[in-house]
C-alpha cells in the first residue's frame, strides 16, 4: 500500500484529497503547513508527496527546494489554484514530478500517482543496478591475500553506513586508498571527498584549515574562509596522520564529532556540519594516549570501526598483481607501449624488502619502465630495485 503525504494549509482540500486517495486504498498522512510537512518527509518514507504552492510562512516552492536539498527521492506533485505555465515550468525545473491545478480532477490525480510510482520503481532498479556494477568492477584495493580480502569485506559492510572509521598501518601501505573506497561505496559518493594531512600543516594553521576563519581573525586572514569540515559537507572528511594533530585541534575536533557543529577561528557562531569522518594514522594511538599525546575520548569517537592495512612485506603474494597494475598505469601516463615483467623479475620484486610499502613499489616500477627495455628482467630489478640479498 502506497503512503502519501498531503501538505496544504486548507483543511477542505486535505479532506477532499484524503477521501479520494483512501477510497483508492492509499495510506494518507497530512501536514497543514510547509514546516510540518518537511519534518514528516524527513522522518517518514513516503511514496508520493502532494504539496500546495500558496501557503503562509513557507510556500510550496520553498518546501520543494528544501526537499531537493535534503535529497529526498520521493516524487513531489505540486498543486495550486493559481497555476500558470510559468509556475508549472518553474516547479518542474526545481525537481517536482508534476503540477496539477485546482479544482483537482480524480482521473488526473490517479494517472499522476501511477506514473510517479512507476518512476520510483525505475529509480530503485537503477540504484540496484549501479550497486551491482560497482561490485562487478570490484574494489580499487588490489590484492587477494587474506588480509586484503578482509579489508574489502569490511569496506563493503561499513561503507553504506555513516560510522566513523580509523585506519591504521605503516606509511605508504594504502590507507588513503581504503578511505577513498569507503567514500566511493557509500551513499555520499556524489559529494566531496576532502583530505587533510594533519602532519603536513603547521600546528598554528591546523585549526584554520579544519574549521575555517573569519576575516581579521589573524594577520593573514584577509577574507572569510571555509574550513575542511564545511567543504566536506554531505561527503567524507579524511583526516590523514591524525596522530600528529595538536592538542588544541584535537579538542575542537572532539567537539565537532560530539555536537556536529564547528566554530570558525575568530567567530563564536556555531555552524552545523554533516561530514562523515574517516581518520588514519601510522602511530600506535594507544601508546600515544598512555604518553599523554593523544586524547582517549577522541580516540573512542574516531575508532567506531577499526581497519588495519598490512604492510607490503606482509602480503608479498600480492606483489605480482600490484606490479602489473602499476606497469600498465605508468606506461599509460608516459605514453609508451606497455612493457612486461618476466617471471624472474616478479620473483625478484617479491624478495625485495619494501620498507616504503606500496608507494615505494610504485616508484620502483616507474623507474624500471623508464630505464629498461620492453621486457623487464630479474637482472633489471636487481640493478635498479636494490632487492634483499
Characterise the protein shown here:
This protein has 389 residues and is an alpha/beta fold. The protein has three domains: 125 residues, Response regulator (Rossmann fold, 3-Layer(aba) Sandwich); 172 residues, P-loop containing nucleotide triphosphate hydrolases (Rossmann fold); 72 residues, Helicase, Ruva Protein, domain 3, CATH 1.10.8. 46% of the residues lie in helices and 15% in strands. It has 16 helices and 16 strands. The strands form five sheets. Strands 2-1-3-4-5 form a five-stranded parallel beta sheet, sandwiched between helices. A five-stranded parallel beta sheet has the order 7-10-13-6-14. Strand 3, helix 3 and strand 4 form a beta-alpha-beta unit. Helix 13 packs across helix 15. The protein is elongated. It starts with a strand and ends in a 5-residue tail after the last helix.
Cα end-to-end separation: 71 Å
Q: Roughly how many Å is the radius of gyration?
A: 28 Å
Strand order of the largest sheet: 2-1-3-4-5
Oligomer: single chain
Shape field: elongated
Query: What is the average per-residue confidence, as pLDDT, rounded to a whole number?
Result: 89
> How many structural domains does the protein architecture include?
3
CATH H-level superfamily of the largest domain: P-loop containing nucleotide triphosphate hydrolases
Strands, total number: 16
The CATH architecture of the largest domain: 3-Layer(aba) Sandwich
Secondary structure: helix percent: 40-55%
Write down the CATH class of the largest domain.
Answer: Alpha Beta
**Which band does the percent of strand residues land in?**
15-25%
> Remind me, CATH topology of the largest domain?
Rossmann fold
Report the biggest beta sheet as strand number plus sense, adding barrel if it closes: 5 strands, parallel
Number of helices: 16
- SS-derived structural category: alpha/beta
**Poorly predicted residue ranges:** 134-138
Amino acid at each position: 500500500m502506497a503512503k502519501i503525504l498531503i501538505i496544504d494549509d486548507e483543511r477542505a482540500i486535505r479532506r477532499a484529497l484524503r477521501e479520494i486517495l483512501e477510497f483508492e486504498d492509499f495510506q494518507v498522512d497530512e501536514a497543514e503547513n510547509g514546516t510540518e510537512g518537511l519534518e514528516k518527509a524527513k522522518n517518514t518514507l513516503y511514496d508520493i508527496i502532494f504539496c500546495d504552492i500558496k501557503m503562509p510562512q513557507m510556500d510550496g516552492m520553498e518546501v520543494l527546494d528544501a526537499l531537493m536539498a535534503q535529497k529526498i527521492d520521493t516524487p513531489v506533485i505540486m498543486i495550486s489554484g493559481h497555476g500558470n505555465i510559468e509556475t508549472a515550468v518553474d516547479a518542474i525545473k526545481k525537481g517536482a514530478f508534476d503540477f496539477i491545478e485546482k479544482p483537482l480532477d480524480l482521473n488526473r490525480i490517479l494517472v499522476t500517482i501511477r506514473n510517479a510510482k512507476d518512476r520510483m520503481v525505475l529509480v530503485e532498479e537503477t540504484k540496484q543496478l549501479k550497486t551491482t556494477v560497482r561490485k562487478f568492477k570490484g574494489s580499487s584495493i588490489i590484492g587477494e591475500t587474506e588480509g586484503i580480502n578482509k579489508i574489502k569485506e569490511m569496506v563493503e559492510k561499513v561503507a553504506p553506513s555513516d560510522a566513523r572509521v580509523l585506519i591504521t598501518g605503516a606509511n605508504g601501505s594504502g590507507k588513503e586508498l581504503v578511505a577513498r573506497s569507503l567514500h566511493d561505496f557509500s551513499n555520499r559518493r556524489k559529494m566531496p571527498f576532502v583530505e587533510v594531512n594533519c602532519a603536513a600543516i603547521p600546528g598554528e594553521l591546523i585549526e584554520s584549515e579544519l574549521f575555517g576563519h573569519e576575516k581579521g581573525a589573524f594577520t593573514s586572514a584577509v577574507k572569510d574562509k571555509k574550513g575542511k569540515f564545511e567543504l566536506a559537507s554531505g561527503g567524507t572528511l579524511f583526516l590523514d596522520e591524525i596522530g600528529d594533530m595538536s592538542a588544541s585541534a584535537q579538542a575542537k575536533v572532539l567537539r565537532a564529532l560530539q555536537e556536529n557543529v564547528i566554530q570558525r577561528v575568530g567567530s563564536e557562531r556555531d555552524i552545523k556540519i554533516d561530514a562523515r569522518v574517516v581518520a588514519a594514522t601510522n602511530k600506535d594511538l594507544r601508546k600515544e594516549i598512555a604518553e599523554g599525546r593523544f586524547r582517549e575520548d577522541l580516540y573512542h569517537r574516531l575508532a567506531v570501526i577499526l581497519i588495519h592495512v598490512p604492510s607490503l612485506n606482509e602480503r608479498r603474494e600480492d606483489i605480482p598483481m600490484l606490479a602489473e597494475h602499476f606497469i600498465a598505469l605508468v606506461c599509460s601516463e608516459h605514453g609508451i607501449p606497455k612493457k612486461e615483467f618476466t617471471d624472474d623479475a616478479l620473483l625478484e620484486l617479491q624478495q625485495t624488502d619494501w620498507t616504503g610499502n606500496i608507494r615505494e613499489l610504485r616508484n620502483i616500477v616507474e623507474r624500471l619502465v623508464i630505464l629498461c627495455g620492453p621486457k623487464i628482467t630479474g637482472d633489471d630489478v636487481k640493478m635498479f630495485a636494490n632487492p634483499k640479498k
